[in-house]
Design goal:
By secondary structure, this protein is of the alpha+beta class. The chain is built from 8 helices and 9 strands.
Length: 273
């Protein structure tokens, strides 16, 4: 299937370095492969990295096949172990991206209208911050840590160990919303935690940035929600909601309708866990 050039987001070297193994394992879909191939064509440094990693992996596979062949002392892995590994790989590679949306229920729009939503002036902050979050979410790179049956605990523990701040997400109270997994990323020059959520109708990506100096200043229409100000923006067909809780800035990117996205933010809270 042909990939529209306008839909291929720009991949940087750090993103490729973090996802090179998934690329070589064939875990990328057609769009992700096209984006990676495009980057490799124009980046000699990353081509060398990809070639070296492929050579190393091929050599490792050859040694493993030699060690695990029937005549070898190591023999063959037990059937039960092989089954568990195959099932784990199948779960990890199951497609996560669903874009099919049903019409937004009238109740959602009514709840949005009933809330204390006051539209202020359009804020002329940095539009590149919203654009960067959207590109990163649209890229859909493989998640580095997955949620457990019990919830997002493994995601938060893993991200906290990698960042110099504790990335505490809001308490989204929408029925059917659940965390899928997370990864490390950047929004412009800011290190960020990224958590992907499955919604009853669509998906959402949450970026969490630590900004103690108040430099993160995204653009968008300002909407007052009680004492909170939310900035609503649009880029590449996605709607984005940006808001601050003290030093932490949240950017929620989704293919939801703006009214549904606002309702999602309205029903959330950022109380400590």
């Amino acid at each position: 299937m042909a990939i529209e050039p306008t839909l291929i987001a720009t991949m940087d070297c750090s993103d490729l370095e973090r996802s090179i193994d998934a690329y070589l394992d064939g875990e990328f879909d057609a769009r992700e492969r096209a984006e990676t191939d495009q980057h490799l064509e124009g980046c000699p440094r990353c081509r060398v990295l990809a070639d070296e990693r492929k050579t190393m992996r091929d050599a490792l596979r050859a040694k493993l096949r030699e060690a695990m062949a029937a005549p070898a002392p190591a023999g063959k892995a037990p059937d039960a172990l092989r089954k568990r590994i195959a099932e784990a790989l199948a779960r990890r590679r199951r497609p996560l991206w669903r874009r099919a949306l049903s019409p937004i229920p009238i109740s959602t729009v009514a709840a949005c209208a009933a809330g204390a939503m006051v539209v202020l002036l359009t804020h002329s902050g940095d539009p590149a911050l919203v654009e960067d979050a959207v590109k990163s979410h649209h890229r859909g790179l493989p998640l580095e840590v997955m949620a457990s049956v019990a919830g997002d605990g493994p995601i938060l523990a893993w991200l906290s160990d990698k960042l110099d701040f504790k990335p505490v997400p809001p308490h989204f109270r929408t029925d059917g919303m659940r965390a899928l997994g997370g990864r490390l990323t950047h929004v412009r020059e800011w290190p960020a935690a990224y958590i992907r959520y499955a919604l009853p109708k669509g998906q959402a990506g949450l970026f969490i940035v630590n900004d103690p100096k108040g430099r993160f200043d995204a653009s968008g229409r300002e909407v007052r929600l009680g004492q909170q100000i939310i900035r609503l923006g649009t880029a590449r067909g996605y709607n984005v909601a940006v808001w601050r809780d003290h030093e932490i800035v949240y950017s929620l990117v989704s293919d939801l309708d703006e009214a549904a996205l606002y309702e999602l933010v309205r029903t959330s809270q950022t109380a400590p866990r």
